[in-house]
Amino acid sequence: MSVTDRHDWVAGIPMESFSGSNASVFTGTFARDYFDTLIRDPENLPASFITGNGGAMLSNRISHFYNLTGPSMTIDTGCSSSAVAIHQGCRNLQAGESDLSLVGASSVLLNPDMFIAMSNLNVLNAEGRCYSWDHRSNGYGRGEGVATLLLKRLDDALRDGDHVHAVIRETALNQDGKTTTISSPSMEAQQQLIEECYRRAGLDLAQTAYVEAHMTGTATGDPIEAEAIARTFGQRRSSDDPVLVGSVKTNLGHTEPVSGLAAVIKTAFALQHACIPPNLNYEKPNPKIPLDEWHLKVPTLPTQWPQDKSPRASINNFGYGGTNAHIIMERAPTPARQINRAVEQDESLSRVFLLSSRDEAATKAMSSQLASYVRESASSTGNSVNSFLLADLAHTLAERRSRFPWSIAVKARSVDELVTRLEDPSYQATRAIRNPRVGFVFNGQGAQWHAMGRELISTYPVFASAIEQADEILRDYGASWSLHGEFTDAKPNIP
Q1: May I ask the CATH class of domain 341-431?
Q2: pLDDT (tens digit per residue) in 254-273
Q3: Which of 29, 278, 327, 356 is the Cys-Cys partner for 407 at CB 3.0 to 4.6 Å?
């Protein structure tokens, strides 16, 4: 499955394009602080308490708002909730039940209840930090987070021109079963999960360069997970060629149900940039984790992706009740861009830049913000890429954004001209009376000339392809002349 998005991790799919579709929604949850806060005062519960705070509504409300008709469910497996949701989203797409899947989770810390309960279990760090892989591992620090991924089948994403951040090769789930206590992890189950996930994918464990570990910073869980990684990935490597390991929890804290999504996002960026971020809060190894012996290495500086390894990474994510998830990710393919480069580089072309929102003030604010963005982007790049910036921006605003009633449209040939017009107060937002429509007017005979539209063939590949297809159809009907030739010949070819 592809993890798709546009620049700045905005999916770039207009709402109206998938409204009414079979898109699915899978969300992860764990603690419900706001629910618990409201329920303490039952005499003053708001009328929307159930519809606003019920666990089912975390996913169902998204489906309702966007008018999505595919499967919609909220998943609670503790800290592995969002990784399990990713697994369900991938399986949903593979089964053909949906063509698009939204996977999300949230963790917002609003009251002390869970802090007290977790402190009683001795799972929290007194400093509020995660010392993953470190000798100070004695509990984790809680973190807040909200994250959403959009999943599509890779072929569909490439067909639709989506920006693919990474590819999910395989996912797998299992359960610890009977352990010492219900919250005690199983090294054997974690090992089996990794091996099963790679067996299904048909991939070589030795070629995985990086493992994004669950590794919360707890005294019990960290050594167990490290040994499972050592018995799978490390066993196939040497001390001179260790497996690189890390945990995003050193950056964010443990975001609990969001932790799987946080790990996927971090790993996608690492794959994109071919650079593995350093593991923070690291002084020296946990004495229960013999890194050298187990052929593991914790990077403490930005590390370039090993040239002799596949652009592939693995992610562990575990729930406190024993539900384990594993995800294999790879770098996204880099297909040829569909935008004609000659068009991008032609500075004589004017492009239309469209902004829209639900009210006039917001539209004007967007215009000012876009001007600042363009100015800053242009100053940080060379002139050679400015035309690419304009082409991408015009395309994204026109094709990758929902259209709202209030809009501003400006025309520009250059970065400077675009900035000037966006900041020009004479350009006012206008309100559409109805949904905008594009109209084509054909004025009959008498207004045509030989080779009319010739420039379109050399400028727009889609137009050239359409003419070639029409040419083939006309020849099948017995035409003795070439339609393509009528556009390209210097003189009319009159039979």
Answers
A1: alpha beta
A2: 999 999 999 999 999 999 99
A3: 356
DSSP string, 290-356: -HHHHTEE--SS-EEPPTTS-SEEEEEEE-TTSEEEEEEEEEPP-PPPSS-HHHHH-TT--EEEEEE
Give the predicted TM-score (pTM) of the model.
0.81
pLDDT of 324-364, one tens digit each?
Answer: 999 999 999 876 344 444 444 555 678 899 999 999 999 99
Nearest CA-CA partner of 259 in 193, 316, 313: 316
Rounded to an integer, what distance in angstroms lies between the CA atom of residue 130 and that of residue 135?
11
| Domain map (residue ranges) of the chain | 2-331, 341-431, 454-488
Q: Label residues 271-285 b or e (16+ Cβ within 10 Å = b).
A: beeeebbebbbbeeb
- pLDDT less than 50: residues of the chain: 5-8, 336-344, 384, 495
281 contacts 250 by C-beta, under 8 angstroms:
yes
Q: Give all strands of the β-sheet with 163-175 in edge-to-edge order.
A: 72-75, 24-28, 101-107, 145-152, 2-5, 163-175, 323-331, 312-318, 210-212, 243-246, 296-297
231: number of Cβ within 10 Å: 17
* Gap between the Cα atoms of 190 and 224, Å rounded: 9
